[in-house]
Amino acid sequence: MRTTARTTRAVLAAASVAALSLSLTACDGGSGSDTDATGVSASGDKTAPRSGGADSAAPAAGGDCTLATSKTEIEDTGGTAPVVLLKITNNGARTCAVRGAPLVGDPTTGRNLPVAENTRPRSVVRLGPGRSAYAAIDLASIDADRTHRAKTLGITLATKDGKATQGRVTVASPGAAGLLLDAGSQVTYWQNTLEDAMR
Hints:
mainly beta; 3-stranded antiparallel β-sheet
């Protein structure tokens, strides 16, 4: 990621998280051992158990998340950091995994945004039903050269080996003017929490 963008994100992450906390759904802290963490909030605190009594079990793993069983959208951070959040929510009935980084297609250039390799998580990001994961997209500075606006982006999920899955969804910019992008714009890997995505 560009140093200035990452530094600004780190400084403003706390304020942005506070502004979004009422509207964003916390996601689980998955692990590389495929252990579900459906009872962990975005802050890592245990949440109240799901209804159904002591014998209720967490939903069985359902493999990888798909576009058909999830909702993907772009959200403004609410701060001044030149970044937006890509959020995916598991709308299915079982826990699923999001692999690697999302493939983010820029319709203006006809290419996918590069991935910030230094944001690779240490474990597989797994989502229980209703849980979300986040990836940050760095935007261009207003005074940057050779910028362009993108009112929509095409999102494709990745497989375990980093290849594209079938299908693509189009997500709209949260602002009418579109997202300001340039050659330095990148996307992070999927992260368990919006705090991690903003670092």
